[in-house]
Amino acid sequence: MFRFTRPLLQASKLSTGIHGLSVHPNPLPELTKTYESTLAALSSIPKHAAYRQGAEALTSRKLKIVQDANGDVAQVEKQLDEGQIEQAIAIAKDELGLVGKMTEWKAWEPLEEKPEPGQWEYFGKTSTAS
């Protein structure tokens, strides 16, 4: 019975209280679509790339949270822990944009130039550059 009133509760929200971030009329389908688009875009990055592995795992986890919530916006907000649902949508869209940039930059490829000796040494720790 209450399942049908959930969209009405979200629609009754007048403001996010954050300048420049308006209330989304139907946030969960938008969030699902954005996460699915991100996963599709990540498929263009090689599987061995650390960025793809991390972003894919995180996005899949977030998508599962949204799908398991059964339309409960408050539950999604609590489990995602990214603020209001509109903020989660903005974060998801930013990540989708970053996937495009990472694909353009080909960040998984080796460096064009060898790093200077000691360039990757911080706080007395040494690492080997390849």
Automatic annotation (TrEMBL):
GO BP annotations listed: respiratory electron transport chain
Q: Where is the signal peptide?
A: none
**Which keywords are on file for this protein?**
Electron transport, Membrane, Mitochondrion, Mitochondrion inner membrane, Respiratory chain, Transport
Q: What is its main location?
A: mitochondrion
> One Pfam match, by short name?
ETC_C1_NDUFA5
Against PANTHER family, the record matches this protein to:
NADH DEHYDROGENASE [UBIQUINONE] 1 ALPHA SUBCOMPLEX SUBUNIT 5 (PTHR12653:SF0), NADH-UBIQUINONE OXIDOREDUCTASE 13 KD-B SUBUNIT (PTHR12653)
Q: What is this protein called?
A: ETC complex I subunit conserved region-domain-containing protein
